[in-house]
Amino acid sequence: MELEELKQTWKSVRSHIDSHISDENAIKITRAKNDIKSRILKRARRDGIFSIICLVLMVLSPFWAPMKFPYWWLTVFCLTLFISILYGIKIYCSIKAINLWDYTHMDIFIAIISIKKMYRNVELACAAVIIPLLIWFSFTPMFINTWRMFFTWGLTVLGFSLEYLLYRSNIKQLNKLINWERE
Fold first, then answer.
1. Three-class HEC string of the chain
2. pTM
3. Which of 106, 142, 151, 167 is the most exposed place for a label (fewest CB within 10 A)?
4. Cα distance between residue 61 and residue 78, in whole Å
5. Which of 21-30, 47-56, 153-162 has the lowest mean pLDDT?
């Protein structure tokens, strides 16, 4: 008789133990996602600070730069950089707004897809403006067949290669926020 009572008690308690274990797993998952979110936000802050420093240097470049760029070129470049900073702020705020404790997996998925779209669009738009501008500018009479032309090409290739690697890394981090198990 005691064995039957023990089985009944175990069956009634087992569902509570299983739910408690799944609650602990959910908390672990959310904490892991929160760490990933913090890492993404730190990167976004660092990228924003770097972009602001670059913008200030570009705006002040007529006073210190050895390659005296035309003002119209600086205006286009600075405008593109300013717009990318604004998008970076919007992306940062979107990431920060994700509530990992209250959002469902689908809500997080939708938010991440939206952030990835914004990020991809700003990267493509900036590349579509800056790369042709740099290539065209390197073929102007002031630059053609001089060290400045090769310097501009080298910086263009280096800058966009690094930006591509950073973009891929950030997308991987955003994907980890959706699929934390892959970390």
1. CHHHHHHHHHHHHHHHHHHHHHHHHHHHHHHHHHHHHHHHHHHHHHHHHHHHHHHHHHHCHHHHCCCCCCHHHHHHHHHHHHHHHHHHHHHHHHHHHCCCCCCCHHHHHHHHHHHHHHHHHHHHHHHHHHHHHHHHHHCCCCCCCCHHHHHHHHHHHHHHHHHHHHHHHHHHHHHHHHCHHHC
2. 0.75
3. 106
4. 11
5. 21-30
